[in-house]
Write a structure and sequence with these properties.
Elements lengths: L11 E10 L3 E9 L5 E9 L2 E7 L4 E9 L4 E5 L2 E3 L6 H13 L4 E10 L8 E8 L16 E7 H9 L6 H14 L3
Parallel strand pairs: 4-9
Antiparallel strand pairs: 1-2, 2-3, 4-7, 5-6, 5-10, 8-9
Length: 187
Amino acid sequence: MDALDKAGRTGQILDEQPVYQGPIFDLVKQTIKTPDGLTVDRDLIKHGDAVTILAITDDDQVVVNTEYRVGLNAETISLPAGLINAGEAPLVAATRELQEETGYIAHDSQVMTAITSSEGFTSETVNLILTHIDPTEHGERHFDADEFVNNQLVPLRQVIDLLRAGKIRSAQAVCALTWYLNFLREA
């Protein structure tokens, strides 16, 4: 069996102890028997799945957000994003999150791919969504009580320049943009 054939094999969770329970994630300690027969102790952040939305107009304007992020203690440049509610499909979550954060209405949405940012310690999967917007269709924004998001339409060329300059650092935004540019954008 070559290494690629092993992908997808699961381990057996022998024990799980809660360490912390919070509003967005839980931290647990697990003892696991791996598919290769090792017994290991690991910390796992159990995190709900999320969406990141590449929203683009017919004339190649991209919805770009700036929002305070505690991990960097600074406002960062990214794409609209948010958590998927229990029982909600990724495309439904993307439509809802885009409306809540930006006021824009999603059209012709599709899942580009799903990514894991750090499967060594978190269970979070982020669905990368491509959607189209009409900048003249704009409703009200509805922020969560603890968030405020600034957004604007930015030409795709300028977004690519921000990406190249390292000013867009969110792994989800980098992946969404590069997936779109490499696999979906018409030449």
